UniProtKB/TrEMBL annotation:
<comment type="similarity">
    <text>Belongs to the acyl coenzyme A hydrolase family.</text>
</comment>
<dbReference type="Pfam" id="PF03061">
    <property type="entry name" value="4HBT"/>
</dbReference>
<dbReference type="InterPro" id="IPR029069">
    <property type="entry name" value="HotDog_dom_sf"/>
</dbReference>
<dbReference type="InterPro" id="IPR033120">
    <property type="entry name" value="HOTDOG_ACOT"/>
</dbReference>
<feature type="domain" description="HotDog ACOT-type">
    <location>
        <begin position="1"/>
        <end position="109"/>
    </location>
</feature>
<protein>
    <submittedName>
        <fullName>Acyl-CoA thioesterase</fullName>
        <ecNumber>3.1.2.20</ecNumber>
    </submittedName>
</protein>
<dbReference type="InterPro" id="IPR040170">
    <property type="entry name" value="Cytosol_ACT"/>
</dbReference>
<dbReference type="InterPro" id="IPR006683">
    <property type="entry name" value="Thioestr_dom"/>
</dbReference>
<keyword id="KW-0378">Hydrolase</keyword>
<dbReference type="GO" id="GO:0047617">
    <property type="term" value="F:fatty acyl-CoA hydrolase activity"/>
</dbReference>
Length: 129
């Protein structure tokens, strides 16, 4: 799993309990998956179709730095299936896991569009082609 993005937990990210608000974390995960999929599928019209159950294993506190990891499970026809793990950068403790996130690339009419991708591509390799 590659951990692409770090986030710094700020006062506005906390719940009334004083720990990281779950909704904020899901927003970060969704955005991370969208950005990752847009780049991989080379389609800016890529949406979240499905998220499996989530498992909050531990929390984070103000000032913590967390990192969001993504792994490709499968390239489908129009879809890209990912899994995600978020961990505390300092303690390496797992905060959340999401086993299955399905992103779908759309065409101009908002219908699923075949992407023709079968493996992860790195931007640096695209540039050298
Ligand atoms: C980043 C964001 O926040 S985006 C905002 C939130 N997301 C949205 O608004 C999306 C709203 N949903 C939609 O517009 C539609 O459901 C669409 C266009 C994404 C998909 O429409 P569908 O009629 O379900 O398309 P279809 O049945 O062809 O499925 C498309 C792909 O999704 C997969 N899929 C569909 N439903 C599910 C599901 N419940 N679980 C897992 N995968 C699914 C299919 O297997 C298919 O994959 P493939 O192309 O690799 O074979």
């Amino acid at each position: 799993m590659r951990f692409h993005t770090r986030k710094w937990v700020k006062p506005e990210d906390l719940n009334p309990n004083g720990t990281l608000f779950g909704g904020r974390l899901l927003e970060w995960i969704d955005e991370e998956c969208a950005l990752y999929s847009i780049v991989q599928l080379e389609n800016p019209k890529t949406v979240t179709k499905y998220m499996s159950e989530i498992d909050f294993k531990s929390s984070a506190h103000q000032g913590d730095i967390i990192e969001i990891g993504i792994e490709v499970v499968k390239f489908g026809t129009a879809s890209l299936t990912l899994n995600c793990e978020v961990r505390n950068k300092m303690t390496r403790e797992k905060i959340i896991t999401v086993d299955k996130i399905v992103m779908v690339g759309l065409d101009e009419e908002g219908k699923p569009k075949a992407h023709g991708k079968t493996q992860i591509e790195f931007v640096k390799d695209r540039l050298s082609n």
